[in-house]
Amino acid sequence: MNGYRAAWMTPELEMLRDSAHRFFEAEFVPLEERWSKAMLMDRDAWNKAGAVGLLCASIPEEYGGGGGTAAHDLVIFGEQARCLIGSFANTVHSGIVAHYLLAYGNEEQKKKWLPKMASGEMVGAIAMSEPDAGSDLKSVRTRARRDGDHYVIRGSKTFITNGYHADLVCVVCKMGDGNSARDISIVVVETRDLPGFRRGRVLEKIGNKGTDTAELFFDDVRVPVDNLLGPKEGLGFGQLMEQLPVERLYIANNAVAQMERALEMTTAYVQDRKVFGQRLSELQNTRFKLAECKTEATIARVFVDHCIDRVLQGDLDTATAAMAKWWSTQKCFDIIDQCLQLHGGNGYIMDYPIARMYTNVRVGRIYGGSNEIMKEVIARSML
After folding, report:
1. Three-class secondary structure of residue 156 per DSSP
2. How many domains does the chain have?
3. Which of 306, 339, 342, 345 is nearest to 323 (CA)?
4. Are both 243 and 365 inside the same structural domain?
5. Of 186, 204, 234, which residue is a domain's last?
6. What are the DSSP E strand ranges found in the chain?
7. Most buried of 9, 285, 310, 357 (most Cβ within 10 A)?
8. pTM of the full predicted structure?
9. pLDDT digits 0-9 by tens, 300-328
10. Contacts of 38 (CB under 8 A, 6+ apart)
11. Can you tell me the distance from the alpha carbon of 306 to that of 311, in angstroms, rounded to the nearest whole number?
12. Active-site residue numbers?
């Protein structure tokens, strides 16, 4: 980007970025099309990623992780996005689930689960969304009722990333008969051979088709009370709100990586493609559109890097993270739409990566809290 270098990027992180790029290009890119058609990636891909240190990179070494910071995760996630891999939901596994366990789990829970997540032995998911509760987490209906030394969980979840392969699910539920945010807790469910736990269909999506996205059902599932996340019941909503800023930064960072890749591909395409006897890149409309996209992508990169600096300092606030999430995902979609247009008819053919990117990035404006919710979060910080 014309000599620009993020203040948070170090030589060590550059080495990690290069290593991650080589791994993804060699191990995942050749399989992406097959995974997309199957609507599911291979389970052993998690073990391969764990073996080379791409899982739980920011989890302390004492729990089996890489001992890095959020910057290490962001480099790995960003490089995956740049390689156009839409089937591997490591952001959820390493960036979200592992950090719920690290932040709110007790010592026994962390030692029990985190090393297995770092190796890929266990795949993590977080079950928030329900058929009637998406961005409005206060409306979840899944219940956990105390029965002796167990919780009995009843309810259903949908749109659960990693849901089909998940061995460990952080389930957002309401405790007992309570019906307010103060009654929400997170209970960790180990799914293997668990009576009452069912996986529904793997959901077919318009983009990121290979991502493991499933329905989950809890039919009076019994889970030890020791699997509660946090020292007492009723802390779940606060835990969710605490973790959301960095989760939204992951989404913004991935969006910037995708728009940068789209611009690289489109710049190469217009220099090669000829129309009316001249290169597409020689037409003023092409040059102006690329100039606009480059400017917006640069603004997004600098803003997201500013947010990364803040998260590494521990002071990224909710409103700023919401700004980064909605603006970056919207601009990502806008830029890729413009890049697809510059590809002409080829942009509509799935043989060209820009077509896959067009459908893949659409979800960015929905998950992690819809962009409409992001604007409400920002407005509340102002008024």
Report:
1. strand
2. 3
3. 306
4. yes
5. 234
6. 124-127, 143-147, 150-161, 168-175, 184-190, 197-202, 213-224, 274-275, 278-279
7. 357
8. 0.95
9. 999 999 999 999 999 999 999 999 999 99
10. 210
11. 9
12. 247
